[in-house]
UniProtKB/TrEMBL annotation:
Transmembrane segments: none annotated. Pfam families: PhoH, PIN_4. It comes from Ectothiorhodospira magna. The keyword Nucleotide-binding applies. This is PhoH-like ATPase.
Length: 465
């Protein structure tokens, strides 16, 4: 968490949203002290009720604080409770300090009102005056509060511990471009097995590869392969199946570019239990996942049904209370599902009756579920599609993926450039988190879809608007 540009022991004043975001934030500041204003405890108390993720996090914070205070008297609390690493490995040496007395510092007239944010700013200013030898830092996920702090001369930082990468451009892409002179400097052994072409490659480039990574050559569009196993500088590589032509469509869908072909290879591979597809609007994420799910559920009987879900974060105004069952409540959020099903079920024969029968058949094997009711469940032999996954935190993502039982495949779709959840960024999104954590797992795969294939109008708008 601690940036290295400031040396010496520091005092971190935590904003409420930091603890709501990460309950273990108390233990993430290494040897430095953590200060909790009384207004933060008040805000935590107001947010503790409910079944939302924020309410659960707040209750966990309360349990952490209660455990730290066990057996402590007033004098010990005033001196600070040791953060001795009882709950988190990162902590060590720091103390947890509470506001045990009034701390006042005159705020400028340009900050009218008595909001909790202004109270926290006043406390930070008072601490700066009392401890001139200590760097007092306000930690908040609220950008505007950090701006106000900077204006008042208070050192402020974002909470960095949940940041997966320093820059989203460093995110694993799932593909690797081979140089034009490949395989120069490498040893190759090729053979056929079960109708598939395999190669054992040994050389320096192999050390940079990951399991199920997609290999290609820009000068040879026909060469597409997948890394099946890697050990040190030796890898087992399998030639990818070509889904771009008419010979191997998936539920009538053909890949329109190299990345889509790689995505279909991973989606149709029973040995790959987790697939993440990241791309902008129109790159075909939902269509490819649904086509692969329908093909393996209805044609191959590999899965019992498709479960589709997404986080319900509205882009505009909330539409309010929705009557009906769980599936009916989720239907307005599943417009992408309905749009893609129309593409995947163009029943031209049989008229209206044929189309209705086809939709009933497919609709019976696709279930729409809400994320709010996922805790405690176990899904067996299901094809789970998690749409808009960029709006989930890393903790929520862990909760969902651990619902998968034997024979279940999880597909996460999203665009890290389109995050609607407050306090989440491209580098802290749960989608970024799982892409980075699963890249070395032999049963996981990832592809970054780059080219939009929706329409020429959509492509032009995406590039120039």
């Amino acid at each position: 968490m601690v940036r290295q540009d400031i040396h010496g022991k520091r005092l971190f004043v935590l904003d409420t949203n930091v603890l709501m975001h990460d309950p273990a934030a108390l233990f993430r500041f290494q040897e430095h002290d953590v200060f909790l204003p009384m207004v933060v405890l008040e805000e935590l108390d107001k947010a503790k009720k409910g079944v939302s993720e924020v309410a659960r996090n707040v209750r966990q914070v309360s349990r952490f604080i209660d455990a730290l205070m066990a057996g402590a008297d007033h004098d010990r609390i005033a001196q600070g409770l040791p953060l001795n690493g009882a709950h988190m490995e990162e902590s060590g040496g720091g103390r947890l300090l509470f506001q045990t007395r009034a701390l006042t510092s005159p705020l400028p007239a340009s900050l009218p009102g008595h909001t909790p944010d202004h109270t926290i700013l006043g406390i930070a200013l008072a601490l700066q005056g009392e401890r001139p030898e200590t760097t007092v830092t306000l930690v908040s996920k609220d950008i505007n509060l950090r701006i106000k702090a900077a204006v008042l001369g208070i050192h402020a930082e974002d909470y960095y511990n949940d940041q997966v990468l320093d820059d989203v451009d460093l995110l694993y892409r799932g593909t690797f471009e081979l140089p034009a002179d490949f395989p120069a400097g490498h040893q190759l052994e090729t053979w056929l097995e079960g109708g598939h072409t395999f190669q054992r490659i040994t050389g320096p480039l192999v050390a940079q590869w990951h399991p199920n990574q997609c290999l290609y050559r820009e000068d040879d569009p026909d060469f597409m392969a997948l890394v099946r196993h890697r050990e040190h500088t030796t890898a087992l590589v399998e030639t990818a199946r070509d889904h771009t032509g008419t010979q191997h469509p998936v539920w009538g869908i053909q890949a329109r570019n190299r990345e889509q072909n790689f995505a279909l290879n991973l989606l149709m591979d029973p040995a790959v239990d987790f697939v993440s597809l990241v791309g902008t609007a129109g790159t075909g994420k939902t269509l490819l996942a649904l086509a692969a799910g329908l093909a393996q559920t209805l044609e191959d009987n590999r899965y019992r049904e498709i479960i589709m879900t997404r986080v319900t974060v509205p882009v505009g105004e909330d539409i309010g209370f929705l009557p009906g069952t769980e599936e009916e409540k989720m239907t307005p959020w599943m417009g992408a599902l309905m749009d893609n099903l129309e593409v995947l079920t163009p029943s031209e024969t049989g008229g209206d009756w044929g189309r209705a029968a086809t939709q009933d058949l497919i609709g019976g094997r696709i279930k729409i579920r809400s994320l709010n009711f996922m805790r405690g469940r176990t899904f067996l032999d299901r094809f789970i599609i998690l749409d808009e996954a960029q709006n989930l935190t890393s903790k929520q993502m862990k909760t969902l993926i651990t619902r998968a039982g034997p024979g279940t495949k999880v597909v996460c779709l999203g665009n890290v450039g389109q995050i609607d959840t407050p306090y989440l960024t491209e580098t802290t999104s749960g989608l970024t988190y799982v892409v980075d954590r699963f890249k070395a797992w032999p049963h996981g795969g990832h592809v970054l879809l780059q080219r939009g294939e929706r329409s020429r109008l959509a492509d032009f708008a995406a590039e120039f608007l």
